[in-house]
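Page 47, continued from p. 46.
Same chain as before, 583 aa.
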Amino acid sequence: MRTHYNTDLDINNVGQEVRLCGWANNYRDHGGVIFIDLRDRSGLIQLVCDPNDSQKAHEIASKIRNEFVLIAKGKIRPRGEGLANPKLKTGQIEVVVDELIIENESFTTPFGIGDESVNEELRLKYRFLDLRNPKLFENFSLRSKACIVARNSLTNMGFLEVETPILTKATPEGARDYLVPSRVHQGEFYALPQSPQLFKQLLMCAGFDRYFQIAKCFRDEDLRADRQPEFTQIDVELSFGGEDEVIKVAETFLKDIFKACGKDIQIPFMRMTYKQAMEEYGSDKPDLRFDLKLVDVIDIFARSNNEIFAKIASDSKKNRIKALRVPKGDTIFSKRQMQGFEEFVRKFGAAGLAFIQVKEDGLKGPLCKFFEQKDLDELVKRCELEVGDVVFFGAGVKKVVLDYMGRFRVFLAQNLNIIDENRLEFLWVVDFPMFEQNDDGSYSAMHHPFTMPKNIDEEDLEKIQSIAYDVVLNGVELGGGSVRIHKNEIQQKVFKLLNINEEEQNEKFGFLLDALNFGAPPHAGIAIGLDRLIMLVNKANSIREVIAFPKTQRAQCLMTDAPSKPNAEAMRELGLKLRENVK
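Result:
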């Protein structure tokens, strides 16, 4: 007799003999008849153990407790009139058991399966129990489906799946490496890859003109809700193609993945320059499910007689003054909320948060006295202000203002409840700066030093753009990529601008530079974060919900107690010794 999954069965199977396996989710004794909710990965089904049908099965059922492993055989019948459970897929039927086996018993579990009120640390410590929740299983069912579809879609486009090394050499990619000591070469270390970046470029040099893999990557960085120390990405590279071709490939397999997950998305996606994204949304990954754009008003404030604002406005290259209009905000926000808004932006470096209210008799607020009427009229026109609106102003250093006003934009949208959680708004952000300035005045590559620049001979480093592109979904960066440098003379110019000398070049990525001298083709690629993608599709609260055995925000596995101290013998074999009292 074939074993069925619970939710494969419905009212159309009435009268059928079935064999079911799973766990006792709960049980109830109703006047001698025992009811058991049997749970498998698909969900619940009700078993009925009646002594009139099978005395032996009833005797066994009386010994059952939650999470006992059961095998049951019986016949499907419809539930009695008024007893159907519309909350269950199997709510119209039940199985009258004639044979029941307790395959294994269980200790009392530390929490009920599927209990959402349980502390996450406890769930992670007993992750194997937490994963029995059919809701979590659905996350991984979807993830599996997405991987299969991605592989099929890319294979159909002529891509070849190739695995690249996990034990490799440390390369500068923006985060700290996880290091693995070598027993054979004592004193030397492998690094776990932050991405397959250099290897996929080498594959292009080798003539593997269309490569992909679903790659495991590792980064030792501070964690948050959408980051893990080890993560998975759909990694793609192609030769003899540029930005447009890579974007077309990515849109194709993303559309296929979302279709398999029950969501139809439209391609091509909208494109926006990095400059527009930052200036209008305060973010290089703007959420387009709501409006609330930032408006540049620095020229208007330059004419004000407020000394502080006028000084900020005198340097429009270094500084920004941005306006953020909230329609009908003056009629919605209380004084206490307005104070809370200022406290919010101060956490991200703001000196304060000025605002003007739009009343029936004109603009009101302490700022108004510093402007002539024609400038106030210009504010109304440029910000498209209407009666009942409130407009907030952020002023200061460009980088700081764009950051806190971008965060404030999202914070306001959440408070106003204007974000449509069912919308999927995709966006390509393109034309990134090639370099970004560090706090010490030096420059580093915004993406990585192998990204092809558009105008490498430009004297002002901040004006050099890269041929790079990020794909954004609902304010979350799904992934990014770039056209790569394939000519050594361009690569050397980039290294020179980054002050990376020849010795450092050869030490860190000499093998790639060698390959560029042996007829490297033009190539480009992209990597899409699989974990984030599934998190967004499933509307999960955390990336940990879509990773089977995740780490905590302190990069610990509570279930296996990793990381842990090595034993003394292993350390001797590696030629290592732990220092005492290291803080």
